[in-house]
Amino acid sequence: MTQEISLSEDNIFITEETIDGDDDGPLAGTTVAVKDNISTEGVRTTCGSKMLAEYVPPYDATVVSRLKDAGATIVGKANMDEFGMGSTTETSHFGSTENPAAPGHVPGGSSGGSAAAVAAGEADVALGSDTGGSIRCPAAFCGVVGIKPTYGLVSRYGLVAYGNSLEQIGPFGETVEDAAALLDVIAGHDERDATTREVPVEDDTSYADAATGDVDDLSIGVPTELLEGADEGVVETFWDAIADLEDRGAEYHEVSLPSVEHAVEAYYVIAMSEASSNLARFDGVRYGHDADADGNWNERFAQTRKEGFGDEVKRRILLGTYALSAGYHDKYYKKAQDARAWVKQDFDEALSEADVLASPTMPVPPFELGESLDDPLQMYLADANTVPVNLADLPAISVPAGETDGLPVGLQLVGPAFGEERLIRAASALA
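-> structure tokens emitted (431 positions)
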């Protein structure tokens, strides 16, 4: 199958091809943008990379099958950071996406195209994937709602893997109810994904039904560590949103998550190690880019990966391979897994004292386009408030909290495992 591939005029979609769902269903008449690392049968799925620029999957991801069955219309594959590696959507091989809510600034990443599609009104809802904040970051930067489900709630079958133990597919919407309605469709056990869980639900309930905005007597824990070092305007906007929740009947108190001091380091060791393993399959032999190089197989393999991967992907493969190498596994990877267990323990303790935890989604407002490209460390540190949630396998939601200097600010709520209904109820008081 031959398809022309180029970014849409506004750099939101990599492939603009309509996929029609059934004639009826809960999402009939709803348009959906799908992140371009989620397989769509017969429609190009590039992961924002030259390596997969010509790849057309022969099957649908489970979430795509469920969208079709629900009557949704997929309007395009959304731009993303290459293989999900980035927080700006600028590492995409096909070019950067501009933030519709803040022209001249990035939309966040790695699911920046999905968030931008909703913010620009080019799709009613969208799907992204979240390995360390890749749904919540662009939701915050674009002023929309993004839900990172509990690990195991949504099937990852058909999601091109980056960090298997961390990533989850989740929804974007203009409102909490819109995002929750999409979650209703994609959530649930899948026999093709052994990591999915059977979660008991009442037949007559739905996540969308939980969007009542009722926060009376809701107990909110505010982790002090997730406010340290944050931009002053972001912190101010965050407290204004907390005050709004208080006015509606919620109460807050401060809690501590001492382990988050090490969360970013632990996350990147684990994520890069898993990425190194997952991306080893791209050798130019079975599928993907194949360099036209002379020499033996090793030389052709090296040239294929040199041409096919961008700088950020190469950086993470190298660091992950080093962390897993003989003599360094215990020094880095094992310690990172120990830190992960500590993070989960801290979250469990904090959530025993509060119904939900709240923080700014991102400690900074949206970067200007090009601002962080030469400083990957700045991009990594910006994930300080989001990556701990993935390490702890918990659900989280980002909702618009307001603006600072005309730039969107998001508020993140974190709940106990499979506590999506509680999060949706609380978040719907703000969006």
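The radius of gyration is 20 Å.
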